[in-house]
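User: I'm new to structure prediction. If I give you an amino acid sequence, what do you actually give back? Let's try with this one:
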Amino acid sequence: MTTAEEVRGWFTGRLPQDWFVGPPEVVVDREEVSVVGRLAPPPHAEQVSGAERTALLDGHIQRFREETRERRIAIAREAEHRFGRKVSWGAACEDRREMFTNLSVPVMTRLRQPERRVLDTLVEAGVARSRSDALAWCVRLVGRNAEEWLAELREALRHVERARAAGPQV
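Assistant: Good question. You get back a string of structure tokens that encode the predicted 3D arrangement of the chain. For your 170 residues, that looks like this:
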């Protein structure tokens, strides 16, 4: 099994060096690899403000998306073959971030009545269209409010991953 560090290393080495400022952010789970690169700010970005700046950064990200589409698809195919996971792309520039593609994966869960009632309340209140949307909303809310704790947990998992990779191969 390939580790997240190996996947990150492969993408960092495989991507054209002129695409991003620094190494890309590569996030790996069981089904997907997300690659988000930081773009250098466009000329004159610091000279405009407000809506014009937002539009300038959005346009800059869109231009990158269009200009790199064919190469990103080719690299994604290589990675999907090599790692057995779908690849999603995104770009960030200053405070703007956009995912170009991403995977939506069904997840099976068993909930008792009190948990189902939470989801049903969100649906009835119009916060979500379905139980599935309500559950996704809850997960995003927890992720946003517990980011520091989740980051600490992810770091601990990286240490476990390194220890496994250094151990004997079975």
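You can read the tokens as a compact description of the fold. Here is one thing that stands out. The CA atoms of residues 34 and 168 lie 29 Å apart.
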